Amino acid sequence: MALEDKWTFTEQSASILPFGLFEKLRHRKKLLDFRISSKDGREVRANRFLLAMRFPRISDNVTAEDRALMEWKRFNADIVEAAVTFAYTGRVEITMTNVANLFLLSINLGCSTLTSGCIEFLRPRLSEDNVETFWFIANATMNSDLMGICVPVIADNFDGFTARPQFHMSTAAEYLASMLKDDRLNHVPEDAKLGAIAKWVEVATTEEGEECQIDCLKNLVESIDLKRVSLEVCVKFCSSNVMMNFPEECRQLIFDEWMVAKKSSRLAARETFKDYVIAYETPSNSPQMLSFRSIFKEDPGVNFNFHMESRQNCAVIFFNGEFAYYAKFCVFKTIFI
């Protein structure tokens, strides 16, 4: 069923506040002792006591004896009117046209109820077409609830969103790390997550200097499951042009952490290997060298896969997490991942 373009949000605690009385006083233009000037030059009048009670962040300003006017130059009169109407009635009409500005104004005013109403309206209406705008707003306002409803939409097209420079320019490292650790991204490959980190490092800028950049990078890398990152992707990341701007010890640290994660993930799975030297050789009559047979009389009962180039009269030996090609005059050694 299609969602309505507009929705009236009603405050749940409306019954404990005398909204009916407030609304009647406003309609009669009674006790309107404070003016708010909007972006388009129009003024909205309200009662300063009510504004102070409903909007905590401006309570000191509106109750100052020598002040009767505030300028909200970022918001048009219709947005100001909607917020003031909510203060008086506990109700507000939210649409996709006004929700972004209402959300921003509610943050400025410290009106958590109106903020929650905007998020409730957006939750079923976020899409690939509009989520980037609200992700940017969530980062700018450091609102984790708004970020939270953006994550599933981003996860559905993770590669597409994280390939956009604007996405990374509007994303702080801590919030990217939080998103990468979100359970709703479990289906996203760790290789793709490391790729997103690489893109963030390339695009994002920090004003705190190199030391902060290094700390941000470390925190981001720690937010993904390194043992699920392929060797190819890790090497590509550590040797990328952008990573060359970081100190050598930083690149080495990341690669070392990847190696530690890989090693720890193999310990349990390969516990049975520790007492074995497993050797396989290619049949001398097999030109393709694609089949192998154990050179032991007994099969150690351990299964593993590897790829090797065709080498005549070679044996493949697996021992202590590595395998090697042994020929008559030379040894070709490869790390087993």
- The outline comes out as elongated
User: Largest sheet, order of strands side by side?
Assistant: 7-6-8-9-10
CATH architecture of the largest domain: 2-Layer Sandwich
- Total beta-strand segments: 10
Strand content: 5-15%
CATH class of the largest domain: Alpha Beta
Content-based structural category: alpha+beta
Give an account of the 3D structure:
The protein has 337 residues and is of the alpha+beta class. It is built from 15 helices and 10 strands. Helix 4 (77-89) crosses helix 5 and helix 11 (173-180) runs parallel beside helix 13. The longest helix has 22 residues, at 248-269. It is elongated. It starts with 5 loop residues before the first strand and ends with a strand. The relative contact order is 0.06.
Brief characterization of the structure:
The chain has 337 residues and is α+β, with helices and mostly antiparallel strands.
